[in-house]
Amino acid sequence: MVLSGVSVKRQKQIFKSVEIDTRQPPYVFKCQLYDLTGVPPERQKIMVKGGLLKGDADWSTVGVKQGQKLMMIGTADEIVKAPEKGPVFTEDLEEEEQVISLGHSAGLFNLGNTCYMNSTVQCLHSVPELKSALFKHSHSGRSNDLDQTSHMLTVATRDLFNELDKSVKPVAPMQFWMVLLIKHPRFSRSHNGVFMQQDTEECWIQLLYTLSQSLRSPGSSANVDTVKDLFGTKIASRIHCQESGEESFETESIYSLKCHISQEVNHLHEGLKHGLKSELEKASPALGHSAIYFKESQINDLPRYLTIQFVRFSGRGSRVKRIRYCGKWIIHWSWMFMICVQMNFANDWKLLRDDEGKKLGSKANEKSSGSKDGDVKMTDAEGSSNAGGESSATTSQEAVPSDKETSLTGIYDLAAVLTHKGRSADFGHYVAWVKQENGKWIEFDDDNHIPQQEEDIVKLSGGGV
Questions:
Q1: What are the start-end ranges of the H helices in 281-374?
Q2: Ranges of the chain whose pLDDT falls below 70
Q3: Displacement of CA 75 from its chain's centroid (Å)
Q4: Residue-level pLDDT at 170
Q5: Do the beta carbons of residue 281 and residue 233 sit within 8 Å?
Q6: For the chain: N or C, fewer Cβ within 10 A?
Q7: Burial, 214: exposed, middle or buried (Cβ in 10 Å; 0-12, 13-18, 19+)?
Q8: CA within 13 Å, CB half, 301
Q9: What 3-state DSSP class applies to 180?
Q10: C-alpha closest to that of 59 among 69, 49, 67
């Protein structure tokens, strides 16, 4: 039965001829009133004979009649204003805005065994200071002492970085690859008409060397080398021949430290110590024939971005990768302090050591005992000692702190990891794990980008994939 002559009064408003379908529960009637008054059913209080109308009441017992007047009280919802701007979908944004929304740049198409190059580019692309230097180079132009191919590769690097920053779709690095092959023909080796897989560490070194020549500040008396400041680790070496007693000293800047992996190496600092010692054979003026020279090195100065290569392939024999994990492959302040000649960062490391001591519940000024990494005595910037307690091979003049920005410390955060998948040095696949500006990690597998968690990166433990 339908009652059509019922009226409802709310405040000063009267709603006449409201229909009530007594076949439906009172809650349906309240929904009708919600459309008229804006008061949600749960807030409505409708006065009927004997009390309030409940949503599940029986109309036959309520006693509502045709033409009856009902009273309702209740607070209406606020009127929802239409948004000034409609919803914006990611695909409707400009491409540069899509990049910002995604939080990472584009991937790179594999042009035929070019994963070594793609991974190297993705790691270098994550360095904002390098991108800034490349942008400035575009305005300064080619200097007179720079060869044409180096200039071309620098411009191609800049253009590729810009394209990665502005694109959400994978980029084909064709121009960059062609110029790279012109500048460094070693990467153009092929087999049966197919380009061969190359070593990513060689690509890293050669590309940085080229950019180092291009991005020097022209006309500056200091001739600032931007790339060396960012990536160059200064090494002080003592070269001596036991047979002749000859001895010499040299300093150089290298773009990666080598951590040699062997059965005896369990931690990163152990592999680095092996990498700072080597043997070489060369002509001895004193003996008049070739002789074995021993080269022992220590770090003289650290760059803003420290690069470490895990040397897993031996040049002898089967060229099979050594799969061995380093229990501590993330850089630790104490052993870095031990293998550095200069004490530029002694204060920073002392603060970090004291802070770690507090976390362990020990007093900041107490010497820790039983530490796996060994305790390190902090000295001032003019003196140093190596892990064995012997005096450094460099002079005090060589140990004077550099003029780098005071904000630069010896404490590093992991920024990127470049890994090789496969057991052979001549085959396999390279991928890059890169930390983005927003703190998120992305695994770049050529044109695929896969979000990763930082704890997953640390779990790699420096191991081969």
A1: 333-338, 346-359
A2: 50, 77-104, 138-145, 217-223, 262-267, 312-410, 422-427, 460-465
A3: 53
A4: 92
A5: no
A6: N
A7: buried
A8: 21
A9: helix
A10: 49
- Bridge pairing between strands 247-254 and 289-301: unpaired
What mean pLDDT, rounded, does the chain reach? 75
Q: DSSP labels for 97-148?
A: HHHHHHTS---B--SSS-HHHHHHHHHHHT-HHHHHHHHHHHHH---TTS-H
Q: What are the residues facing 14 on neighbouring strands? A: 9
> Is the entire prediction scored with pTM above 0.90?
no
Residue 69 is encoded by which pair of tokens? 């007047």
Give me the helices (H) in 302-378, please: 333-338, 346-359
**Would you state the pLDDT for residue 157?**
96
Q: Enter the DSSP assignment of 360.
A: T
Q: Which of 240, 274, 332, 429 is catalytic?
A: 429
Residue in the structure block whose two tokens are 């020279």: 293
Q: Model confidence over 179-216: pLDDT tens digits?
A: 999 999 999 988 888 888 888 889 999 999 999 988 87
pLDDT at position 29 is 85
The yes-or-no answer on residue 115 being catalytic is: yes
Q: Quick one: which H or E segment has residue 51?
A: strand 51-52
Contact 393, 296 (CB under 8 A): yes
Whether 261 contacts 324, CB under 8 Å:
yes
Side chain identity at residue 166, one-letter code:
K
The per-residue b/e assignment along 83-114, b for 16 or more CB within 10 angstroms, e otherwise, is: eeeeeeeeeeeeeeebbeebebbbbbbbbebb
Q: For residue 391, give the DSSP letter.
A: B
What pLDDT score does 43 carry?
A: 85
State the Cα–Cα distance between residues 62 and 427, nearest whole angstrom. 85
Angle at 136 between CA 134 and CA 140, to 5 degrees: 115
**Cβ contact 341:398 at 8 Å:** yes
CB 281 within 8 A of CB 292: yes
Residue type, 195: F
Phi, psi (deg, nearest 5) at residue 282: -155, 170
- pLDDT given for residue 338 in this prediction: 54
440: number of CA atoms within 13 Å, CB side? 14
Helices and strands in the chain, H and E counts: 13, 17
C-beta neighbour count of 147 within 10 angstroms: 13
Among residues 31, 104, 115, 191, the one annotated as catalytic is: 115
Q: What gap in Å lies between CA 102 and CA 438, rounded to an integer?
A: 10
